[in-house]
Every structure is written in structure tokens, then in C-alpha cells.
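Async update (no meeting this week)

Hi team, since we skipped the sync, here's where things stand on the single-chain job. The sequence we agreed to prioritize is pasted below, unchanged from the tracker. I ran it this morning and attached the output directly underneath so nobody has to dig for it. Comments welcome in thread, and please keep replies under the output.
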Amino acid sequence: MNPVKILVVDDEIELERLIKQRFRKKIRAKQLEFVFADNGKKALEKIKSEDSISLVLTDINMPEMDGLTLLEKLREIDDTLKAVVVSAYGDMKNIRTAMNRGACDFVTKPIDFQDLGLTIEKTLEDVKKMRDNINQLQEAQAKLVQSEKMSALGQLVAGVAHEINNPVGFIAGNIAHAEEAIADMIEHIKLYQKHYRDPVAEISENAAAIDLDYVMEDLPQLIDSMKHGSDRIKNISTSLRTFSRSDTDTTVPFNIHEGIDSTLMILKYRLKANEHRPAIEVIKDYDELLPVLCYPGQLNQVFMNLLSNAIDALDLASSNKEEKSGLSENKIVIKTRFISGKSAKDNSCYFPRVAISIKDNGPGIPPAVQERMFDHLFTTKSVGKGTGLGLYISRQIVTERHQGKIQCISHPGEGAEFIVEIPGQNTESS
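Output:
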């Protein structure tokens, strides 16, 4: 765990040595870390350059920028950054002004380090509670926004699928009748040709004009092509309904492969070749899986996020000339596996899991990004292209809603693999 970082702002040089001496145990234990500045101006520079400062201890009377001005600036930078004023009793008027400007407490000089320690401990607890509350609020807001977006998308997709179904049903039914009628008509024409080999000139001329032999040969193929097109639309409609499944309060049996396939169908337009790159080949290596008890709509959302990110990575590699030269093909490999593991406490007890792997051969993910990729609002994409919610919410869906786990395996230049594991049906006797 990283130490809590405290910024001390005071022009008394001796104070730095005293603080390091009095708090040396907590510094060595990496519970606290102190950063120092001798005026308000330098303090602001430290805040911008240092990560995650939780508390500011500041004097009031300092050169260049005093503590009161610094307090005003702190509120503009970070509302969660707490400040404690360290000043003499004779400066009570300024201390009251400091409290009005956002200081949460004060310690008098000469410093009682036991009192300072207690003040730091109490203030840091307040900072932690406040930041935890803000994070919880942000998480709740993110979940609500994403839930509303997915709900609206689900309703839209389900509505489109429903609207497609009716006309496609009419077309499919009429094609079947047309296929029979055309076959009967062609057979009837062949009977005429068999028994009336020398038709009148007008019929012969018309047959030549319309190229009757070609029409009789091509018409069944035309109908067959229409039939295949109708079947494709029905498959798309089925995929839309599968993807947009509404989740209930309890888990339901769900075919994982249908969820992945429906997501691929929706993303099919993004897999096609474009002016920047060739088509992306999707390789599916599916294990034999029983239906899994889960929340289908949310799990489909995870598949959508992971596959979209894989496509984005391949798009990025293709737009980068240096990375592009090393990639001959764009591939996404999807594997599913059934894993049955024994309990560490009881070897006779099985805990089956389903593992879903989505791997691309893109540029890979740097280690520094891997450390933060599941963090709330973290994104490496440009403004308007990334929200920093996709992987964050995916992890919550997998870990909290399905008691599973999600991990990333990636090395620069070797692509990225995301592995999702969730509890699966137990097919083995205990």
C-alpha cells in the first residue's frame, strides 16, 4: 500500500528536520510520506507535480505567497484536499481568516508533536471518508448512467428486432410460395417445349427476346439468393434479441456462445476492411459448454466492451505506420473453456468455472496502463472516444455480479488477452 502523502509548507528550514525525526517510524513503515515547500507558490508547484497529496500543513506568514492566499488556491485545485494551519497564538486573527477560507483545523507554535500527530490522524480519517464517499457516489452515478444507456440500447435493439421480424416473416413466407410456383411454371414450360417442338414464329421470337433458357435457369437461383438473404436478416434479428436480453433480479441459464456470437453480429460492420486496414479475422475456439447461470444482458455488455477494445487496438496499430509494418494480419481469437477445480479444503468438492478469452494481435498494452486500466474514468483514448467506464464496469459485472474474475495478459508488441472467469454449471458428481 502506498504511504499517505502530506505537504508541509513553511519557511522555517529546521521544521523539515524535526518532522522527519518525530515521524520517522511512520515514514520507515511507509505509512506517511512528507513533501516540503518553503512558500505557497512552491507548494502549488508541488501539488501539480506530486501524485495524491491528501493533506497540507501550512504556515500563514511566508514570503512570495502566504498561507491565506494558498488556502484560496487549494479550493480551486481540489475540494477534497484538506489543510491544517500551523501558526502562533498571537496570529489568532489570521487563523480565524484561514478557517473561513477552508482550513479544517490549526496547530499552534511552538509545535506540540503529539498534538500534531493526533490532528494529522484525525484529518486523514476525514479525508479518507470524504474521498470514499465521493468514489462511491461516482461509482453509483457511473453504474446508473451505464445502466440507463444499456437499458435504452436494449429497448431500442429489441424494438428494431421486433419491427424487422414482421416484414421478414412475410418475405420468407412469400419466398417459399414463390419458389414452389416458379418451379411449377418452369416444369409446365418444359412440357410445352417437349410436346410442341415447333411453336409459332411469335412465340419463338419472344423466347429469344427474353432469353427464355437463361431465365428458366437463373430464376430458381434468384429465388434461392433471396431466401438466403431473408435467412440472414432473421439471424441478425435473433442476434439483436439475444444481445438485448433484459436481466431479472436473479440469474438465468444462458448460452455463452450465443451471447458472444450476437455481439460479433452487432460489431460485424467494424470487422470489415476499411481504408486504413484489412478485415479483422475472428477465430472462434469454443469448448462444449452447458448453459451458465448469469445475468445475460450484463455479460453481453462485457463481451461488447472487450471486443470493441480489441478492434480499437487493431485500428490504432493500423493507423501507426511503425506498428502497422509489423502486422501482416488482424486477428481476434475467442476461446471458451470449461474448468473444474477441486476445493483446497475438500478434494471431493468441485468448483466448475467457465473461462472466456478474447485475444488480439495488436500493439499490446504498456505495463503502466495495465496497472490502471480497470480504474474508474481511466482511459488512454482521445476526448470523445473513451469514457474510462468500459473496463471499470466490466470488472464490476464480472467480480461483483457474477463472483468471477477478469485479468489482462499483455506485452508490448504481442497483443493483449483478456480472460473472464465465472462460475459454471457443475457437470461432475461430487
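Quick observations from my side:
Residues 394 and 400 are 10 Å apart (CA to CA).
The chain has 14 helices and twelve strands.
Reply here if anything looks off.
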